[in-house]
């Protein structure tokens, strides 16, 4: 025991213990990462890309061109990245019959495997934003609710409404609601800028700030209506319309009642 006590007081013990602790933490994270991530092999990726190419030629090339070069009715897809394909196809926006109208979210035509294959094929032809993995979407851990609310009001509320319910834009277009949208698709929308939405690069809004915005949106989805009926949470227009309708209706009713009583 005395010998151990003597070694414990040695000046080299503290740095040695620190190095051992860092090695232990690094090993633990490496093992955990290896256990949770299952990267596909080169052969599997090649097969996935080939599958995506077949799907593209059958369902997308008539509008976007055989080589993703685009056409008079559809944009080119070279360089849009896997994130853009995943957002458009997994949310049901693509494929679409009429490109002249704003494309709304609907049930997807392709399943998850087919969407993954399409995204892999498009991404294989030109680099672009990648699909964020689950490890990059941990908004509960890495996001700030207060910062997310401030960022949303500064960058998003002028189109999507202060409560994320969506709103009208110019020339018949509109910003859709962000309620009920998955965190992955919200992140992809910010980095790809679909339709009328601008692209928010990592220099404009950092990945951590994007997670804060997502955290605020998810909190707004479950926020209770303590003030009564929400009325769609689209601002003072519906509230004013309701007040005018009820108020004027009440005044007209009172006027009719007084006129009938005066007879």
UniProtKB/TrEMBL annotation:
The cytochrome bc1 complex is composed of a cytochrome b (QcrB), the Rieske iron-sulfur protein (QcrA) and a diheme cytochrome c (QcrC) subunit. The chain crosses the membrane at residues 241-260. InterPro entries: bc1_cytC-su, Cyt_c-like_dom, Cyt_c-like_dom_sf, Cytochrome_c_Oxidase_Subunit. Keywords: Cell membrane, Electron transport, Heme, Iron, Membrane, Metal-binding, Repeat, Respiratory chain, Signal, Translocase, Transmembrane, Transmembrane helix, Transport. The keyword Zinc does not apply. Its EC number is 7.1.1.8. Residues 1-34 form the signal peptide. This is Cytochrome bc1 complex cytochrome c subunit. Heme c 1 binds at residues 60, 63-64. Binds 2 heme c groups covalently per subunit. It comes from the Bacteria. It catalyses: a quinol + 2 Fe(III)-[cytochrome c](out) = a quinone + 2 Fe(II)-[cytochrome c](out) + 2 H(+)(out). The lineage of its organism: Bacteria, Bacillati, Actinomycetota, Actinomycetes, Candidatus Nanopelagicales. One of its GO terms (molecular function) is quinol-cytochrome-c reductase activity. It is a multi-pass membrane protein. Residues 47-126, 143-221 form the Cytochrome c domain. Heme c 2 binds at residues 156, 159-160. Gene3D superfamilies: Cytochrome c-like domain (1.10.760.10). It is found in: Cell membrane. One of its GO terms (cellular component) is plasma membrane. PROSITE patterns: CYTC. It comes from Candidatus Planktophila lacus.
């Amino acid at each position: 025991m005395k010998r151990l006590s003597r070694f414990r007081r040695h000046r080299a013990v503290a740095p040695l213990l620190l190095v051992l602790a860092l090695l232990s933490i690094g090993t633990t994270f490496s093992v955990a990462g290896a256990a949770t991530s299952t990267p596909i092999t080169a052969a599997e990726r090649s097969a996935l890309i080939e599958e995506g190419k077949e799907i593209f030629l059958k369902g997308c090339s008539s509008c976007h061109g055989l080589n993703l070069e685009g056409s008079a009715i559809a944009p080119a897809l070279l360089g849009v990245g896997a994130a853009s394909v995943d957002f458009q196809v997994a949310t049901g926006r693509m494929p679409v019959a009429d490109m002249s109208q704003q494309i709304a979210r609907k049930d997807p035509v392709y399943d998850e495997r087919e969407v993954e294959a399409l995204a892999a094929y498009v991404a294989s032809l030109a680099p672009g934003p990648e699909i964020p993995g689950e490890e990059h979407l941990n908004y509960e851990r890495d996001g700030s609710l207060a910062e997310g609310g401030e960022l949303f009001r500064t960058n998003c509320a002028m189109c999507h409404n202060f409560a994320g319910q969506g709103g009208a834009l110019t020339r018949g277009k509109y910003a859709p609601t962000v309620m009920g949208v998955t965190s992955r698709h919200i992140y992809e929308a910010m980095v790809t800028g679909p339709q009328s939405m601008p692209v928010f690069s990592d220099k404009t809004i950092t990945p951590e700030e994007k997670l804060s915005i997502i955290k605020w949106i998810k909190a707004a989805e479950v926020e209770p209506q303590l003030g009564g009926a929400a009325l769609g949470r689209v601002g003072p227009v519906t509230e004013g319309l309701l007040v005018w309708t009820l108020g004027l209706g009440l005044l007209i009713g009172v006027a009719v009642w007084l006129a009938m009583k005066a007879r």
